[in-house]
């Protein structure tokens, strides 16, 4: 298959984006919903990885448990495990040292660094865990429903609550506002400059969120099966379209699909290196991690490296630009220095 030239591809994408812009107040299952892909949508998931055909780049820290998510904050690498449900806190300056283990009431789906602590979303327990760094002291906050992801805006914690199709706004640890409207699921919440957005995996769409007004705004289709997203230094939201084998870039003022770049191989995990302006994505069908420079008119591939099997999660050490990949098949934690 021959891809169109970059200029043609971008023009086509913007034209499609304009036709799929709808209000967030469209009712789920209602008629005339341009964002609904099929009658009974299901969320895209990571493709199953084959046995690795190459040695993973960098070094691999042994870990037999499934890694569910990763994050770095300052000099700490946080690795969430499925069994036992916990977070391991590694010293990034001495990865040979034994990590501190923090027990959790359920596995963490996402870790978000925030003001000297990590916010861990625990959908299986209906809780948000606040993990102090570097001590590892933990306290939990009850969330009605299944919290999938968090973000912080103006000192308030925003929680995407998947099953309630809502964004919960916490003032401290108290639920102050619940924002709903037009979502099929709330799977991630992102703060990009002055904009707040929520990712809906079932509708495979992104929606704006007016936190002050307490409403869900306009939405755009995000490919054929959006899974994970991150914000770059330019205020764009970069989305992994797993079913569509594409990396998407959305502008937020206004909400508009700016780029759609083909990335075959089961794109899934995504992270951003603000120092080098690189977005890193994992390809689970190929056991690879790929780094794209996103400063230009379209992504430019800079790195392609072999990984551990089932590389569902990736993060970047903001101090050194080291890339960390987690295996969801119990084959370790991969640390790559470039």
From TrEMBL:
Keywords: Signal. The keyword Signal applies. SUPFAM superfamilies: NHL repeat. Residues 1-28 form the signal peptide. The keyword Signal applies. InterPro entries: WD40/YVTN_repeat-like_dom_sf. This is Lipoprotein. It comes from Prauserella flavalba.
